[in-house]
UniProtKB/TrEMBL annotation:
Protein name: Phosphoenolpyruvate-protein phosphotransferase
Species assigned in the record: Candidatus Kryptonium thompsonii
Domain PEP-utilising enzyme C-terminal: 254-540
InterPro entries: PEP-util_enz_mobile_dom, PEP-utilizing_PTS_enzyme, PEP_util_AS, PEP_util_C, PEP_util_CS, Phosphohistidine_dom_sf, PTS_EI, PTS_EI-like
Cofactor(s) required for function per UniProt: Mg(2+)
Subcellular location: Cytoplasm
Lineage: Bacteria, Pseudomonadati, Candidatus Kryptoniota, Candidatus Kryptonium
Domain Phosphotransferase system enzyme I N-terminal: 7-130
Key words, A-Z: Cytoplasm, Kinase, Magnesium, Metal-binding, Phosphotransferase system, Sugar transport, Transferase, Transport
Functional summary from the UniProt entry: General (non sugar-specific) component of the phosphoenolpyruvate-dependent sugar phosphotransferase system (sugar PTS). This major carbohydrate active-transport system catalyzes the phosphorylation of incoming sugar substrates concomitantly with their translocation across the cell membrane. Enzyme I transfers the phosphoryl group from phosphoenolpyruvate (PEP) to the phosphoryl carrier protein (HPr).
Length: 577
């Protein structure tokens, strides 16, 4: 058989060698059927029983999600449960069954499809993603009305190949010894990608034609590092990848021994490794993985159902983290709402990622920002809390947030509340204008944190969640690297430290470049800390300086990645994944 390689988007790192299971989840067939007057009550009962069964299923899935992903990761399933409790929609469906005297599944499909079409036609990427969730929920209810079952378990380990996977599919398959996920659709921020990373299952998305060329029973190799799937590999390729798996296993064992060792190069240059977290419960894992502090605490998780908690409620959350990580520091980012994060006062926009989000919301809603700043200041009483503002685009915004922080301080002084008078103030560098103004802005703040996810997206004008253009999202693009180098140099000239908290900081291939640029701190997901530490401890700072300088000469991402891969292979042979 001919070997075929399909390129996609690397969504979750790892390698899987095994047998493919082509998963085709057919949409339930819905036809319109008229019912008689005496059948109406039974039809409504049929609908309500399906709702209860769907709730029961989702409660089980939600419990499994909390167990495997934590509270934050399980929120998508909690949202689906809330939809099933939407009295307005349920009453509307019951009323239509009574008046129109038609079958329940037809009304459910027709009614929910209106919402789905509205979401899909919006220019809002967040709503488009929610449309997929609503489609999944609609199909679940209809299947339960029709009392159909669908595959969620299989007997032996498989690499699941599908056009797309719903969050529930990806989670339920993880109960089996699933080896990996490969989907035609999806981008780096799709639910399949996010869940696969959280579950530590190798995944490649955006393959486009995987289901066209792969059938159940085919032998495949899924490479979550390179973003490829190999169909019908020959023995030579299988042996090559088996060797890679062995090297990865040996490499992972070494990582476990690094917890108490410093992130220091062979020639003595020290770096700080911090953790990105969303929940106070994640602090313990961060410490266990070797984090020296929290470099990014995302505060959006405390916004429940679009409602922002009051100052006291926020303080209770922030102080938990500050006390748990003490004497390590915690950088608390003010609400990064808008864009893909919705709250009650959200204004629907055609282009939310270029609209009302981040610090723009805070400055437009000073009561919200001041309440949060007071809560953060109260949690800073031991001197280990820092405050950071997202989506800053100009010097004027920097000066505005500084005034707001001073106002929050004066309000607390009037109340006789203690706080750290010298709390450090920093900003996220995630907008090209802020990066290009870094020299001027650095003189007015205490630290920078580079948010590469948005910086890359805005610099290259590419939506990384859009599978059609996701391949253009390039963290090693020369323009991106030059911006990062400029920001680091500007910060150091002003004698302030600079951190990176975007996904690029978690990429071991980028580590040697970032070390060479002189980045002071890496703020990453807790699981990424040992791997980044291993790279830092395996290189010389002078080599990293040479490599980063040389990388800036190349003119394409492909050239830069090939150069880094070759250099890393020579320095850390076991790192050749």
């Amino acid at each position: 058989m001919e070997v075929k390689i399909i390129e996609g988007i690397p969504a979750s790192p790892g390698i899987a060698i095994g047998i493919a299971l082509k998963y085709e989840k057919l949409k339930p067939k819905v036809t319109k059927k008229e019912i008689k007057e005496h059948e109406v009550d039974a039809e409504i009962d049929r609908f309500l029983r399906a709702i209860e069964k769907s709730k029961s299923e989702l409660h089980k899935i939600f419990t499994l999600a909390v167990e495997k992903l934590g509270s934050e990761g399980a929120q998508i399933f909690e949202a689906q449960l809330l939809m099933l409790d939407d009295k307005m929609i349920i009453d509307r469906i019951i009323e239509r069954i009574k008046v129109e005297k038609v079958n329940a599944e037809f009304v459910v499909n027709d009614e929910v499809e209106k919402y789905i079409k509205f979401m899909q036609s919006s220019g809002d990427d967040y709503l488009k993603e929610r449309a997929h969730d609503l489609e999944d929920l609609k199909n679940r209810v209809i299947r339960n009305i029709q009392q159909e079952k669908w595959l969620s378990r299989f007997d032996t380990s498989r690499i699941v190949v599908a056009e797309n996977l719903t969050p529930a599919d990806a989670l339920l398959f993880s109960r089996n010894q699933v080896l990996g996920y490969a989907t035609d659709l999806g981008g780096i921020t799709s639910h399949t990608a996010i869940l696969a990373r959280a579950l530590k299952i190798p995944a490649v998305v955006g393959l486009r034609e995987a289901t066209k060329f792969i059938k159940t029973g085919d032998t495949v190799i899924l490479d979550g590092y390179k973003g490829i799937i190999i169909i019908n590999p020959n023995q030579s390729l299988i042996d090559e990848y088996q060797e890679k798996l062995t090297r990865i296993s040996e490499f992972e064992k070494k990582l476990e021994q690094l917890r108490f060792l410093p992130a220091e190069t062979i020639d003595g240059k020290k770096f700080t490794l911090l953790a990105n977290i969303e929940l106070p419960d994640e602090v313990d894992e961060a410490i266990q993985k070797g984090a020296e502090g929290i470099g990014l605490f995302r505060t959006e998780y405390i916004i429940s159902n679009g409602v922002i908690p009051d100052e006291d409620e926020q303080f209770e959350e922030y102080i938990k983290i500050a006390e748990k990580i003490y004497p390590g520091k915690v950088v608390i980012r003010t609400f990064d709402i808008g864009g893909d994060k919705i709250f009650r006062d959200y204004r629907r926009e055609d282009n939310p990622f270029l609209g009302w989000r981040g610090i723009r919301v805070g400055l437009d809603k000073p009561d919200i920002l001041l309440s949060q700043l007071r809560a953060i200041l109260r949690a800073s009483v031991k001197g280990n809390v820092m405050v950071m503002f997202p989506m800053v685009a100009s010097l004027e915004e920097v000066r505005e947030v500084k005034k707001m922080l001073e106002l929050a301080k004066s309000q607390l002084r009037e109340r006789g509340v203690k706080f750290d008078e010298n709390i450090k103030l920093g900003i996220m560098i995630e907008v090209p204008s802020a990066a290009l103004m870094a020299k001027e802005i650095a003189k007015e703040v205490d630290f920078f944190s580079i948010g590469t996810n948005d910086l890359i997206q805005y610099t290259l004008a590419v939506d990384r969640g859009n599978e059609t253009v996701a391949k253009i999202y390039q963290e090693f693009h020369p323009a991106v690297l030059r911006l990062i180098q400029f920001v680091v140099e500007s910060a150091h000239r002003a004698r302030i430290p600079v951190s990176m908290c975007g996904e690029m900081a978690s990429d071991p291939y980028a580590t040697i470049l970032l070390v060479g640029f002189g980045l002071d701190e890496f703020s990453v997901a807790p699981d990424s800390i040992p791997r980044i530490k291993q790279v830092i401890r395996s290189i010389k700072y002078r080599d990293a300086r040479r490599i980063s300088k040389r990388a800036l000469v190349f003119k394409t991402q492909g050239e830069i990645k090939a150069f880094i891969s070759k250099e890393l292979k020579g320095i850390i042979p076991e790192f050749d994944f």
